[in-house]
Amino acid sequence: MQTNLLSNLLKSEDGEILFTLFSESFVSKNKDVEAFLKTKAVQSVKLYTSSTYLVYESAEYIDLLGYFTLATKMQDSLALIQRQIHSGYLRFCWLNSEEILPKSLLL
């Protein structure tokens, strides 16, 4: 039995296609677990919100036995905010609250 990070597989030339092929045969009693692997695992890895480890029988990734995912705690939230700003998902500006807001609204 072996484990490997999904992100390592995705770095290979046809990694995403290969992952799709062998994840289609994965079946779980818990349909949420199955759905996450098939529909959200790749996106979560690309967004750096989780790390998914694949558990398989052989080095060829043929027999996917299971997986586990660890949520990533964003320790560098400034870098995340900067990526969102540059991608157009988030816009903000710093306000000098004393100059813009009435004193009655300040805490």
Structure report:
The longest helix is centred in the middle third of the chain and has 16 residues, at 31-46. With 107 residues, the protein is of the alpha+beta class. A hairpin with a 7-residue loop joins β2 (50-56) and β3 (64-71). It has five helices and three strands. It has a three-stranded antiparallel β-sheet.
- List low-pLDDT spans: 92-102
What amount of the residues lies in strands? 15-25%
Order of helices and strands: EHHHEEHH
Radius of gyration: 20 Å
Biggest beta sheet summary:
3 strands, antiparallel
Q: Give the spatial strand order of the biggest sheet.
A: 1-2-3
From the N-terminal CA to the C-terminal CA, the straight-line distance is 58 Å
Tally the helices: what do you get? 5
Structural shape? globular
Number of strands: 3
Which whole number gives the mean pLDDT? 75
Percent of residues in helices: 40-55%
> Which class best fits the helix and strand makeup?
alpha+beta
Question: Any descriptors?
Answer:
5 helices, alpha+beta, three-stranded antiparallel sheet, 107 residues
Give a quick summary of the entry.
The chain has 107 residues and is of the alpha+beta class. Helix content is 43%, strand content 18%.
Secondary-structure topology with pairs:
Elements: E1 2-5, H1 6-11, H2 15-23, H3 31-46, E2 50-56, E3 64-71, H4 77-87, H5 97-100
Antiparallel strand pairs: 1-2, 2-3
